[in-house]
Design a protein that fits this description.
Blueprint: H1 2-16, E1 23-24, E2 34-42, E3 45-48, E4 59-62, E5 67-71, E6 76-84, E7 88-96, H2 103-115, E8 121-128, E9 131-136, E10 141-146
Antiparallel strand pairs: 1-6, 2-3, 2-4, 2-10, 4-5, 5-6, 6-7, 7-8, 8-9, 9-10
Length: 147
């Protein structure tokens, strides 16, 4: 009887910890594709796709192996990502080239800089009809469309 209680207690303990950042290696298939950025919201400022230059496109691709890569008009970026049990998309080890960026590109990097928590770049995420919505824990938002 005590063995069953110990197993039940252990199970409940793990269940109760589900709000902690527990990482796994499962990535939603909806995420693993190429996305194009169409809107950025930082505080009360909105930067729409229409406000960017005609030739400017910011793309990001999530791969099944937990890596991501992307490009702005002038720079490339990449790193690792994982999804926590709290439905947070965590970007890690972000690397980028550093050529003078366009205004739209600077706002994209600004969202990441403001989201950094000292270790990761955490974002809440959700999917819509061919859309990926990212919201940083400080409220900045980015909307991507499947490319």
């Amino acid at each position: 009887m005590s063995k069953k209680l110990a197993i039940l207690f252990t199970f409940l303990l793990f269940l109760g910890c589900s709000e902690n950042l527990i990482f796994d290696d499962t990535f939603p298939k909806d995420l693993t594709t190429e996305w194009a950025l169409v809107e950025i919201r930082i505080e009360e400022d909105v930067f729409l796709e229409e406000s960017r230059e005609d030739t400017e496109l910011i793309k990001i691709t999530f791969q099944d192996d937990g890596m991501f890569k992307g490009e702005t008009t002038r720079n490339a970026f990449g790193g690792k990502y994982t999804i926590s049990s709290r439905d947070l998309l965590l970007f890690r080890n972000l690397i980028t080239t550093e050529v003078l960026e366009t205004t739209f590109g600077m706002q994209f990097y600004r969202v990441f800089n403001r989201a950094y928590d000292g270790q990761d770049y955490p974002f809440e995420f959700s999917f819509g009809e061919g859309e990926l919505f990212l919201k940083s824990l400080n409220g900045d938002e980015m909307l991507f469309e499947r490319n």
